[in-house]
Amino acid sequence: MNAIDATTMTGAAGEHLVMSRLLSRGYIAALAPQGVPNFDIVVTSVEGTQLCAFQVKTRWDKGSDGGWHMRQKHESLRNPRIFYCFVDLGKTASASASVHVIPSATVADVVQISHATWLSKPGARGQKRNDSSIRRLLPDYERLMGPETPYRLGWLDRYLENWDQVAAIAQPAPAIEK
């Protein structure tokens, strides 16, 4: 399998895993058409009254920083009905995969703050860093941001398989008394 095929297959595996998690919880979930810029999966309640969407980012546990690739555009996506699912497929295809479900505003904040911090620090040889559209969502920002950062190792734990926050969005609106 060449690199393009591997990347495509990894992304599809993550999207289908998230679809499985949603369908098994009773949501109506469907893949968005290719090319939709801000989400991969559209979800509604069984009643069809509430809608939310998911952007899926998938990785194998093979990189050195344990993070996911992001872009500059992710700094501005802040919608209470859009969530990110950060899928870690593990080291091998037989490993148990995990999904971190994070609101888009939280992701935007973390990506924006961490990138600004990275830009403000000198490069390996003391040079000023050049800006780019590349960002990373990491499980631990302590090395970059220092020991006081709220995004040190463990900050993702509260989002691990946290589908309850989706349930709060996807519940039917309460009836208005007349």
Automatic annotation (TrEMBL):
InterPro entries: tRNA_endonuc-like_dom_sf. GO terms for molecular function: nucleic acid binding. It comes from the Bacteria. Gene3D superfamilies: 3.40.1350.10. This is PD(D/E)XK endonuclease domain-containing protein.
